[in-house]
Request: fold
Amino acid sequence: MKSYLSIAAAILVATAAMAPAQSSFAQVSVNINIGTEPPPPRYERVPASRSGYVWAPGYWNWNGHQHVWTQGHWERARAGYVYQPSAWQHEDGGWRLHKGGWKQDRNYRKHDKHRDHHHDHRDHCPPGQAKKGNC
Reply:
């Protein structure tokens, strides 16, 4: 397992060194598939809500040798996005960590007057209007 991670790290460093300077803004995503099941999640007391922020719950991270707990924290809310927490999934005979982060909210409409006034009308949509995209 250590040799696999060492080879993957060497390839990543070599690739980054040969990339042109213009691509320095590109994002790199590394997925690690390990054979060790993560421990059960720890209980964290979620603090009282903060206006303009979303709570990102804690999760077990992998440091290359063992699982280590990463505590929950506040993330500044982003209009048009939802926060997806980190989660481990059993895949391909091992465990894969899907790191949390912001994903576009397909239901978000930038100029929705009702939403701007903190009134969610999706529960009271007239028949046939949802299919037309009006609710």
